[in-house]
Sequence to fold (224 residues):
Amino acid sequence: MDFSQIIILLPILLFSVIVHEFAHGWVALKCGDPTARDAGRLTFNPLPHLDLFGSIILPGVLLIMGMTPIAMAKPVPVNPYLLRRGEKDNVLVSIAGAAANILLALVAFFLSLIVVLIFKKTGASVCISALRFLNLIIFLNLILANFNLLPIPPLDGSHILAYFLKGEAKISYLKLRRYGFMILIGIFMLGNLLPGRGGLFYLLLAPSFKLIGLFNTILFGLLR
Fold:
């Protein structure tokens, strides 16, 4: 990936992560918890959301390693005791971030369909640049949604899985939270050590890659 691509990619990645966190806080507010709003996190201003490791170091290291960049913002504060339906609402809050990223990807995909139709009628070269830009939005948002739904603490998927666990299984699973970041770093490292492109890292993100492939197949099919 050359420097010009990185310059385009990083703002898209940052915006997508901010939308993800905003969605968590907005759904929490709708479910009765104003903590994120009161902390000034219901904003699209990137500064309150930035995290040194998750927003800068992590994506930078992944780019250097030649892997798909993933970024994380500071988690939006949520007080589960203020949620009207307790754990049920906590699941909704957890799903909200990934749902927002999937929605962004779908909007970009439908815009891409419009751009393809314009290109077929006009042949304007600017349409190709627009398609590349929209394709990056689709790619990054589907990767972010897939990544955050992994059931690895402290990712959103861990809150969803914890809701369905009971008794000792739930207690044991929640104890993994203290090791969550170490597990994630291990996955990133194994991504380069295991056989195949990206190894374990790419295996876990396979659903998003398949969906990206489907979208690209439809778009390239229309371009012919």
